[in-house]
Every structure is written in C-alpha cells, then in structure tokens.
Amino acid sequence: METKRKRRGRTFRIRCHRGKNSSNLSRGEIITDAHWKDFVVWLKSNGFPKTKLTLGNFQGIGRGLLVTKKIKAGEVIISVPKKFLLTREMVIPELDNIFSKHGCSLKHNDNISAYQAIALYLALQKHQQKRKNSCDSFFLPYLKLLPEDFCSLPFFFDDNLFELLPKIVKDDVKRQRQKFEHDYDNVKCYLKLVNISRPEFIWGWFCVNTRCIYLKTNKPSRSLDNIAVAPMLDFLNHNYKAKIKGEYNNSSNCYEITTFTPYQKGEQAFINYGPHDNFFTLIEYGFVLSNNPYNYVSVDNEFSMLSIPNETIASKAEKINLLSSQGFLEDYTLRFSEISFRLLAALRFRVIQNHQLSFAWDDTSFPSKERQQQHRRYKQTIMKEWKSLVNGQMEHVDPENEQLVKVCLTWICDHVIKDAKDALMILEKCDLNDSSIWHIKQIWQETIGIVKSV
After folding, report:
1. Which of helix, strand or coil describes residue 450?
2. Are 68 and 78 within 8 A, CB to CB?
3. pLDDT tens digits for range 386-395
4. In what order do the strands lie in the sheet with 297-298?
5. Read out DSSP for 181-238?
6. Segment 268-319, tens digit of pLDDT
7. Could you give the angle at which helices 399-427 and 435-453 cross, rounded to 10 degrees?
8. Contact 439, 19 (CB under 8 A)
9. What is the pTM of this model?
10. Domain named SET: which ranges (predicted)?
11. b (16+ CB within 10 A) / e for 419-450
12. Nearest C-alpha neighbor of 210 from the set 12, 419, 30, 407
C-alpha cells in the first residue's frame, strides 16, 4: 500500500484491510506522521480536551486510533468543542466573506442545506490550498489529513466494474448519484463565482458524506441542518461490536463519544456507525467487513422474474397490485439461515392457483356480472385466508401451496447463486490488488454463503 500512503482518513484506513473483521484485541503501533503531529499541536493550542487516543497502525487493518492509557466503560473518549465542529452555522459566515465580494450571500438562502454548505466550504478550502499552495484556514491542519480521493466508493466505479455489483447496490448508487447531482445543481452558481471545479466539489461532498455526524442541539433548526463534521472523531474506525453513545453535550458545548466497551493500552478504539450491512458500508464509506451479522441478500429482482406454472400475465399483475396494496411488495431478503417473513408471505400469495384469483375468461371477452361476483367472492376468501396467515392465525395456505413455495425458493436461490458465480468468474480475471475488486468479490462470496445457508 506504499503508493496510497498519502490517502489519509477513514476511507484509506479501512480499505487497507480488505474486509478483515476488526477486533479491539489487535495491538497497534503509534504512527509518527508530520501532518498528524501538526494536527495534534493545532488541537492542543486551541483548547481541544485531552484524550487517551493517538493515531496508530494496526497489522492487517490499517490506520485507526490507538489507546495510550486504559479506558474504562462509561468513559468519554473524545470530546469535540463547538469551535472545531464544521456546521452550517459555522461555514456560512466564512463563505459569505468570499461570496460577498461577488455580490451574493448564502446567509439568507434557506435552500442551501448544511450538507451542501459544508461540502462547498471544504471544496473552497481545497481549491485555495491548491491555487496558492497555501491556505490560511483555521482548519488547515485537519484538511491536510483528509483523503485525497474516494476511489474505493462505487460512485466512482467505471461502467465495467459497476456492472459487476449486485442490482440492489447499483440501484442505491444511482440514487446516490442523483442526490449528488441535486446538491451540485443547488450550489453550481456559487462554484462558478470562485472557479471551483466539479471534481473539487465532489471531493468536498464525499468528505461530508463519509464523515458527518448527526448533531442534535437545543437550538431549533431544520433536520437538514443537524449535521456536522468533527475533526479527530472521524479517525475512529467502525466496528459493529462497539458499544458507544454519541451526543452533543449542551453543558460543555462539546460533541462527546462515550464508550461502553473498555480498552487496554495498545488496543484500537472503535465507533459504531450503526447496524449497517456491507452494501451500505461499501456505498457510503468504501469498505466491507467480514462476518457482518447485518448482511443480507435482496431477492426483489428474482421475485419479479419468477415464472410460476400456469400463471397468466393478468393474474401476476393482479397479485402484484394486491401485494402492493397490502404493503407486502418488495423488501424480500435472505439472511444467514433465515428467510424473511415478507418473502414467504408474498410467495404463498404468488403461488395461489390462477383459477382461484383471476377471471377465467378469454382476454377478448367481457365477463358476465355473475363471473365478476364469483371473482370478488374468490378474492375476498383468499385475501381473508392470506391475512390470517400473515397475522399468524394460520401456518400455511395448504400443502400444495407450501410445496410450490419451496419450488419457487429453490429457483430464486439457484438464480442468485448463478449470478454470483458469473460475477466471480469475471472478477477472477481482474487486478486482485485493487481493493474495489476485493470488496465486490467478498460481497458475492457472502451472497453465496447466505443463500446456501437457507
């Protein structure tokens, strides 16, 4: 990883370990880094509270925060004063100092969210640093520690690599790209005034995306404004086992991280981003974890592709509409040794025989009133039985229905495994030193493992 040594920050640190499961038992070595030393001096000289953490390198994992003294459960491990928090409230005056020279202001523009404003501020600092080869920003020591790029995120994958992602990941990345375009369009007029390029804003946008925290204070504000970027705090790596509390302390005017996991000297301290699966962590942060208990396989696509014997187009459409009206369409998942209740309920409804639910007439004919009444009675009866099943009053519709459900599940699982193996076959021919390739491979391998477990 020598060629990537300059890419400091959360994305760089975690991409190094290629999904190895972090453990607080791993011992690290203190890193003597010039930029880190400048950062620590900056913190101390500006009244940042003392902490028992420093930058460390952990074998097989990469960079993280190393414990320098024993930490007890219930102890505050990082306390970030308000003056260090990058918030909308803080950056807007700074931005207005620049944009007022061009005859405009962001102060009264409520359409600019905290997300957009902080991203714009960071992009501006980056631009000034590159243009002048210097920057007088208060946050300069912190800015020097931010990653140079976010190339491990699927947002930046080329078309060939992007197509190797699971459909659910591709769909979420497309939504992420749409969100970026919306934010970019909202600040584009300001970017042009100071010649900030699109790549520079993308960099600022992802600095916020990968580092922001929710900041709830007593001061009333829009939910879009309740985020901040907190120096020092964002050097903590994620571990789903870490027990922490993060909140703004209105008494001390600091954002505090309290750990309920004790640590010994030399261990790595962690934060917990929340119960996120590897799809989410790859899209949002650019890493995956082994043995992540929140992993799952989405089979929405397979459910829609499912071909059921004797199911007509009209019958399928009606069943899909009814599932949608009952709130049971999509979000069908498989987890380790677990088939989601939503999937089973939807399959039991899908495999109900056509004559029980659909009109039994030719597409070109018009049903008689008697046939319409018969259809309504059938549907009411079946919906009543299905709701009894959903509510736990029945175990299954009937033996034949249950057998068809098993057949459909087998087809779904076989289809998912085939897609996974096809993707892995292509990935084997790619550059295995590319962390993005490893991440996608791990996701597909985990997909096969989950499917086989059910």
Report:
1. helix
2. no
3. 887 788 777 7
4. 297-298, 333-335, 338-339
5. HHHHHHHHHHHHHTT--HHHHHHHHHHHHHH-EE---SS---GGG-EEB-TTGGGSEE
6. 999 999 999 999 999 999 999 999 999 999 999 999 999 998 888 888 998 8
7. 160
8. yes
9. 0.88
10. 51-274
11. bbeebbeebeebeeeebbbbbbbbbbebbbeb
12. 12
What is the arithmetic mean of pLDDT over 448-454?
A: 97
Q: Quick one: what percent of the chain has pLDDT higher than 90?
A: 68
At 363 the pLDDT is 45
Cα distance between residue 413 and residue 415, in whole Å: 5
The CB-based long-range contact list for 369-372 (8 Å cut-off, 24+ gap) reads: none
Q: Which residues of 185-205 are buried (b: 16+ CB within 10 A; e: fewer)?
A: ebbeebbeebebeeebbbbbb
298 phi and psi angles, rounded to 5 deg: -85, 130
> Do residues 112 and 222 make contact, with C-beta atoms less than 8 angstroms apart?
no
Phi-psi category of 337—alpha, beta or left, where left has phi over 0 and alpha has psi -120 to 50? left
**CA–CA separation, 269 vs 260, rounded Å?**
11
Q: Report the pLDDT averaged over residues 159-167.
A: 97
Tokens representing residue 176 in the block: 């992420």
Which contacts (CB < 8 Å, 24+ apart) does range 307-311 have?
308/350, 308/351, 308/404, 308/408, 310/353, 310/354, 311/350, 311/354
Alpha-carbon distance of 210 to 283, in angstroms, equals 10
The answer to whether residues 239 and 269 touch, using CB atoms and an 8 Å cutoff, is: no
Would you state the pLDDT for residue 2? 31
Residue spans per domain, the chain = 2-84+230-285, 88-228, 297-453
Sign, CA dihedral 75-266-436-293, equals: negative
Q: What angle do CA 129, 134, 135 make, to 5 degrees?
A: 70
Asked if the model's pLDDT at residue 204 lies above 50, the reply is yes
CATH 1.10.3210.10 fits 2-84+230-285, yes or no: no
340: closest CA among 396, 300, 399?
300
Q: Is the dihedral of CA 113, 115, 117, 123 positive or negative?
A: negative
Query: Which phi and psi (to 5°) does residue 152 adopt?
Result: -80, -5
